[in-house]
Amino acid sequence: MALRTLAVLIVAFTADPASAHPLRFGRVDLHAEGERVVVTFVHSTTEASRALEPSLEPACEVAPVQASLRGTIGRRTAHLRCPGGLIGRTLDATTLVEAGSQLVVTTSGDHETRTLLDAASPTVRFARPPPALPRYLHLGFVHIFEGADHLAFLLLLFLIVRRRDRWRRALVVAVTSFTLGHSLSLALVSTGWLAVPSRPVEAAIALSIVFLAVELCGFVRDPTRAPWTRRRTVVTTAGFGLLHGLGFAGALGEIGFAPNDVWRSLLGFNLGVEAGQLLFLSGVAAATLAARRWKPSLPLPLAAAYLVGSVASWWWMERVLELGTR
Description:
Helix content is about 50%, strand content about 15%. It has helices at about 130-145, 150-160, 165-190, 200-220, 230, 235-255, 260-295, 300-320; strands at about 25-35, 35-45, 55, 60, 65-70, 75-80, 90, 100-110, 115, 125.
């Protein structure tokens, strides 16, 4: 038999192939750390197993296989030494996935993948994942535009800061404070230093938007009354940044980190969020300027305060009601 058929998991059960039945389902888990690869093959058969050999090409050195059979479920574990790791190797399960059969292949450790093999696609090649920094930068950029509550907060913050002299400098201070706040909480949660339930956080984020809507509404009606957000810009925006960072951490937790590259994943995601925020605020500034030139008397800030505040109040009620459901 050619070198490519050196099995990841050698046959541990013997039987007459004529009396055996085909694979119904199977799972191959590969945990790779450098050259060391631990492979676990779980499969279902009827009667005894036949020569089932998921194989790697180029082949790896195989240590003795640990095998067990419980009823119709077989389990085999092998320790391999693969020079260069899994990258560039191909798992071939042609002998396993016949018509109607499927094999789930997962990898963990140096990189994480999940692939479903069947008769139409019986092989998978383990390629090097893209660099973590640009990949997570893109994810962070996309995420900010998928979070309506974060955008609503930024909109109201801009409209409050906009109604003052030297507003561009004030906006830079506000956004920088917000960024520092959510960067800190995002890092603490994502690295395991802080654990906060997601549902109360989401309810509190909605409440922060309601707070800004009330601040903006009061300021528009009485310009002589400086809102707290204007008088304590750094404290307010940094505090709300800490809160919103907990929400970002929940999203990043769902996405997961690049294996062995947590800090680059965090940095990339954070930079993506910042890029999205700046693009959104630039668009809001341009739209506000155009509206003021078109019709200076248009009550945009007050309309935004009522509209966004009403929607945020609804979000808050929904999220509070959901607190007791789980």
